[in-house]
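Side project, low priority. Logging it here so it doesn't get lost.
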Amino acid sequence: MTTGSKPAGIGVGALLWGVAFAALATAALMSPADAAGIEGLALGGHALWATALAIDLGTGGRPRRRAGTALTVAVLGGAGLAEAAATGAALADRAAGQALWFGLAASFAAAGVVTSLRRAPSDGVLGGQVFFHLLMLIPALANLAQLLLVAVAGPHAAGGLGTAAPLVRVVLICSAVALPLLFTSLVAALAHDLHRPPAERGWPWLVLLAHEAAFVALAARWAGDGL
């Protein structure tokens, strides 16, 4: 009788997560494209991710795939540190919107590091994480480019510095244009892993992917308005 009830349990669990994913999608579409809307979506998505992680830990089983854990932790940890530094720079420039942008990106990196310590991601998931954090960091790279410009061109170029400078804002809008491509890649990785055998699915990673996709959908509108 145990074998007969197991598939049903898996089906119910998958159905419940499907409802959660639908709620994330609805929030991404219906939430206002401002700081409050982004914060609300991030808090709700992180709560779902924490629930998935707690359930996965509660199963008591050890993940089968551990290869790539060190690489994933290094990549996401490095991205998180860079995003935290960018958050500090934005706060110093009193650019609250960009500080929130980088701060939330760092929170996704932290969630990815914690998830990696439990379960190594698939290649598609890892690729999606790299793409996500590279895109989140593009405005910070633009600010770094401005600093290098001053070092080369001299102090007279200092007027365009800061996270609120025109170059950073232009790059931020360009990032918003690239966000739909990122959304597509995250959804593709999610769909691919959902079709894997149940024993090989990592629900914490799946929930994090769904959360990031919902975040990107809302962030595209938010960044397009200039934060």
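Brief comment: Residues 1-10 have pLDDT under 50 and may be disordered.
Revisit when time allows.
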